[in-house]
Design brief:
Elements: E1 3-8, H1 16-23, E2 29-32, E3 41-45, E4 48-52, E5 65-68, E6 73-74, H2 76-86, H3 94-97, E7 98-101, E8 105-106, H4 109-122, H5 134-142, H6 157-174, H7 183-197, E9 201-203, H8 205-214, E10 219-222, H9 246-253, E11 260-268, E12 271-273, H10 286-294, E13 307-309, E14 311-312, H11 313-323, E15 327-331, E16 341-350, E17 353-355, E18 367-375, H12 392-405, E19 409-413, E20 421-423
Parallel strand pairs: 1-10, 1-11, 2-5, 2-10, 5-7, 6-8, 7-9, 11-15, 14-16, 15-19
Antiparallel strand pairs: 3-4, 12-13, 16-17, 16-18, 19-20
Helix pairs in contact: 2-7, 4-5, 4-6
This protein binds guanosine-5'-diphosphate (GDP), 6-O-phosphoryl inosine monophosphate (IMO) and magnesium ion.
């Protein structure tokens, strides 16, 4: 069986958690392939809202096994908190429903401190990191210094921990910005959390997934962040430290490219971004304020307000190409109800020339946005359940996007709840 992928096409927070939850009934396995607790994936059902950071969004269904792949970085402290949050769901036996790759890397307390020191020393040029230690952990992975989940099964892992920690502490001292910390407290919390982590099953997840494919099991790979935060293809350096695009699912799970099936690309009907970095269609007016308020645009991990703007087709076309998206899903259509006119960016004026591809640099001094105006709709979409109920102007919006992106939009989401999902 082929492995299907679900990926965010913008700057994250497109609604991946909601859609993975909706799709899980059709899959035997849900597998996260990159990122770490910088992610915040929100699910809503039966009046409950739940945010996941490391745990795959299939966890609330009985039929699916949830894999945390080798490409993910795990903070045991945050992971333990996530498990504790699941305790309130009676009958949810997460220990038997989560499997963790031995090759996934661990976020140490000093990785978080290094993230904080690095950001503080950058001043205005800071990335706007979630400060979860993501960058420093992936640096240690590629620098071949990291500690992996599988190392916890080895007798000498604490020695390796100590030498890496000591190195980190001398690195923290290098930064101009001084940060306060209590290492003893951080370590006590970390080692307690490691005990909890060790209650879960560690596996060679690439082998598990290989056998699962051979025996005909259905697998959905869940991405974190979004294509414009990809370490190679995103708006560098204002990106995260992993490959968030389709190729990341191959390296983050050990899945061969010829085993990929559908690539579900998910986007908001407008655009948001949290953290620093260029954002050509960003709005600083009442329209942007309305999107943020109606869309409740606050980061699920950090609570920071998300920057809002119109849909950017130059960026979206690029993301569709880089990922090989086969089906699109448009989220938060309901948030645009009530606008008289909508704007969609169709091209950029880049250094004075009109271009339709995503250029090397999208800093404001080089990019002017070209908009097409479209008619808005007034109807409240949140109670709609069938494609036939969607207003004419929304259908025109969807038709236009499908044509521009040369890809069908198969799901239109009209609210945060599982049930507010329209299939086309
Ligand atoms: P993720 O990181 O991609 O999983 O997305 P987040 O959970 O960070 O952010 C998406 C937010 O939008 C969450 O608060 C969701 O509950 C909410 N959401 C998802 N789909 C819809 C939708 O169609 N309409 C509205 N109004 N909210 C939605
Ligand atoms: P989900 O999976 C939105 C952003 C941060 C910052 C940059 C680098 O919920 O869509 P990092 O902590 O990775 O060093 O931060 O990336 N960022 C996200 N923005 N959604 C996310 O995840 C994000 N994960 C990281 O705000 O700009
Ligand atoms: Mg999120």
């Amino acid at each position: 069986m082929a492995v299907d992928l679900l990926l965010g096409l913008q700057w994250g927070d497109e609604g991946k958690g909601k859609i993975v939850d909706v799709l899980t009934k059709d899959y035997d396995i849900i597998a996260r392939f990159q990122g770490g607790p910088n992610a915040g994936h929100t699910l809503e059902f039966d009046g409950i809202k739940h945010v996941l950071h490391t745990i795959p969004s299939g966890i609330f269904h009985d039929n699916a096994m949830n894999i945390i792949g080798n490409g993910v970085v795990i903070d045991p402290v945050i992971f333990r908190r996530e498990l504790q949050n699941l305790d309130k769901f009676e009958g949810l036996d997460y220990v038997s429903k989560i499997l963790i790759s031995r090759k996934a890397h661990l976020i140490l307390p000093t990785h978080r401190l290094l993230d904080a020191a690095s950001e503080a020393s950058k001043g205005k040029a800071k990335i706007g990191s979630t400060l979860k230690g993501i960058g420093p952990t992936y640096m240690d992975k590629t620098g071949r210094n990291g500690i992996r989940v599988g190392d916890l099964e080895l007798a000498d892992w604490k020695d390796r921990y100590t030498s890496l920690r000591d190195k980190h502490i001398s690195m923290i001292d290098f930064y101009d910005a001084k940060i306060e910390y209590n290492l003893q407290e951080l370590e006590a919390e970390f080692f307690d959390a490691i005990k909890v982590l060790k209650k879960l099953k560690f596996i060679d997840s690439e082998e598990y997934l290989h056998q699962a494919q051979k025996s005909g099991k259905t697998i959905l790979a869940e991405g974190a962040q979004g294509s414009l935060l990809d370490i190679d293809f995103g708006t560098y350096p204002y990106v995260t430290s992993s490959n968030t695009t389709a190729a990341g699912a191959c390296t983050g799970l050990g899945i061969a490219p010829n085993k990929i099936g559908e690539v579900f690309g998910i986007f908001k009907a407008y655009t948001t971004r949290v953290g620093s970095g260029p954002f050509p269609t960003e709005l600083f007016d009442a329209d942007g304020e309305t999107m943020g308020r109606v869309g409740n645009e606050f980061g699920a991990t950090t609570g920071r307000p998300r920057r809002c703007g119109w849909l950017d087709l130059v960026a979206l076309r690029y993301a569709v190409q880089v990922n090989g998206v086969t089906q699109l899903m448009m989220m938060k259509g309901d948030v645009l109800s009530g606008f008289d006119t909508l704007k969609v960016c169709t091209s950029y004026k880049y250094k004075g020339k009109t271009i339709e591809h995503f250029p090397y640099n999208i800093e404001p001094e080089n990019v002017e946005v070209v908009y097409k105006e479209m008619k808005g709709w007034k109807e409240d979409l949140t109670g709609m359940t069938e494609a036939s109920q969607l207003p004419k102007a929304l259908n025109e919006y969807i038709d236009f996007l499908e044509k521009e992106l040369e890809t069908p939009i198969k799901i239109v989401s009209v609210g945060p709840d599982r049930t507010q999902t329209i299939l086309r």
